[in-house]
Fold this sequence. Notes:
alpha/beta
Amino acid sequence: MRLEGKTAIITGAAQGLGRAIALDFASEGAAMLLADIQGEKVAQVAALIGENGGQAEAIEVDVTNASAVDRMVARALELYGSVDILVNDAGGSGNQGIQDITDVTEEQWDATVDVNLKSAFLCAKAIVPHMRERGYGRIVNLSSFSAKGNFGELGTTAVRLPYAAAKSGILGFTFQLARDLGPDGIYVNAVQPGFILTEPGARVHDRFEELPDDVRDRMTRATPLGRPGRPDDVAKAVTFLASDDASYTTGSVLEVTGGR
Length: 260
Ligand SMILES: NC(=O)c1ccc[n+]([C@@H]2O[C@H](COP(=O)([O-])OP(=O)(O)OC[C@H]3O[C@@H](n4cnc5c(N)ncnc54)[C@H](O)[C@@H]3O)[C@@H](O)[C@H]2O)c1
């Protein structure tokens, strides 16, 4: 029970990695506010946690909207009185296979950067005054291995250019924020997942299923560990960074990629 007595906000918790992180946090004893733009779906995750004896509430939030983010933080404080952990998971790159810069519209650029990068800024900005007051906080940001610009022919990433730029931006955001907030007892780290096959109905899973057999085979064989990642592989890494086990780790990036 590494998160016993801790409170957390997890964004993007309706499905995929955010959902897996929420389930792992619950098994480690955290009380949570689960936030997602898919209100009904995130409520189901909170209900599942409740049925299994955990503590979670859900809230429908667009994390690219500053006032909605402020409402999310206010709700968490109303529920639990404090927030120890923020996980910035909400993000993604949609489902359209757009790979060439000349095909990327300005709107797609803005939307992808907003949901993957600006959202982390807004959520951290809203929670930091509270964490600073308590002299304690753990912020974990979801970057991506695609931040390194390594998507070639293979990959499920859709609007991959702005996505790579935004996930790379998450790294700079993490490094600088960790430096700025270290003296306040607030740790900021990032996780860099590789190809993680989420559950049916989630974005990466469904896009992967649509790919031709040979492409799926090559993607699976591309990792030294010879399998796609599982959501729980990422959740365990996030739980470590959110817990006091990571007692001297801030401004770091943990790769969860199955090797290079
Ligand atoms: N699955 C992977 O292989 C992989 C790899 C690297 C990085 N990531 C990153 O991990 C995170 C989770 O990925 P996933 O595969 O679970 O994605 P997903 O698309 O399955 O889930 C993302 C969740 O974020 C929510 N969301 C989207 N926009 C939102 C908004 N404006 N406000 C609130 N919620 C919003 C969605 O409703 C969804 O529940 C993302 O940041 C993604 O970029 C995933």
